[in-house]
Amino acid sequence: MKFFISLLFGLFLYASSFAQSAKNYQVYANQIKQFTKPAKILRNDINAEGNGSIEFTNAKNQILRFRLQKNKLQLGSCSIAFEIYYYENNYLRRIESLDSNGNLIGCNLKINGEAVTEYIIEKPSLYLQKKKLIDNSDGNINMKDDSKEKIIRVHYFDSHNKPIILLKPVYISSKTYWQDNIRMGWP
Length: 187
Hints:
Helices cover 27% and strands 29% of the residues.
């Protein structure tokens, strides 16, 4: 009987510590004004030491993600602390990179120093064919760069959300878009 009571008490402590840590992480999400509330945890990969990443989602199909180290916000390349992914019909439309205060932040390590990337699928049926190949291999497929097929175009914006003017349109490969869509990389 003592064992059973101890087990129940241990489970209660574990559940309450998880709930408490989830509330602590919500504090970070709440400070980002562009991210619509209420939000719920989509993915939590933070370990017992407080290291890892967490993703929140909301009813507007936004995903906010960030990393922690020892339960403190961890800055990535170019001091990027948060990323917001905007989805429409399960397709990625926009990524915003934010600093620890929730302001757009450009990064000179990115192609054009952009703070925002917008995606336009110009040939949806062709992308779906390519996506099926990538999905069927769980992304482990060597595909030739199909950016010359002009399937997915991107627009870049600076930290003031103003378009970065380029001489010609920029297209990315279907696999690059697929990787961005599933939030594979980190700044």
